[in-house]
Predict the structure.
Amino acid sequence: MDFKIKHEEDLKKVPTIEEALKTFSVRWPNIKSNSDSSPVFIFSAGWRSGSTLLQRLVMSSGSIIVWGEPYGRAGLIDHLSSPLKSITDTYPAAEWFIDEVLSDRAPLSDLAGEWIANLYPDINYLLESHIAFLVNHFEKPAKATGIVRWGLKEVRLTIDHAIYLKWLFPKAKFLFLYRNPYNAYASFQGFYWYKKWPNEPVYTPEQFGLHWTNLLQGYIADSHKVNGMLIKYEELCNENFNFTELESYLELKLNKTTIEKVIYSTKRQAAPEELRLLNSVVNPLARELGYELVE
């Protein structure tokens, strides 16, 4: 067998998180989250798109803490969810789980005399452990301040990550935010930040634009899969924005004056040649959304 060819074939078969979770639900249909948590997840299509403003607005209710990009460049959510992609129709093998092993052999002490090179805990503990990690890391510290609900905002997460979080927290709410990429880049340029540290920096117009495009395409196409709400930054800042719809969706009472208070702002002008490079990677999506490069 040519193992190099086999490896190349395996790489072509790597599923998305969504596909892996569908396989999970087929193999173990009774394993579902029973979490009552209702976190609010703010997914922004990249940096400088108003995610902190939306975070502040959600927190203005006084009854929720929305953590800001916790260990974002370290890929916390990405690393937690990525191992699930390995789940297929045949992996892990059913006979590796201890409930299957014990159904064929008894008592437990006899396992020492068996071939147990592959011995897995019951599959329900996998789901419970993912939930427990995020609850311990985000919900418990929120409750320690006297606030029950929690959430987080991020500028790096894909729709696939949203599907993962919905699997863990069925009652979660998702806000997908985006902004005019030319204005967002003008505010961003000059920074050196990471999509994922240390190998995926973002500092060029093309890197910024590809990140914006890849995230937003997924949000627009599949936000309905998590019952999410798409929000255009320019509409959020408009006096006619429908706060009632947002409040109803989040089940929170928001302080609308939060939008009027500017905490931190950068006003920069991006060089024409940089905007042209950005323009080459954000279209046709930008034009479809009504965003045009003005030179």
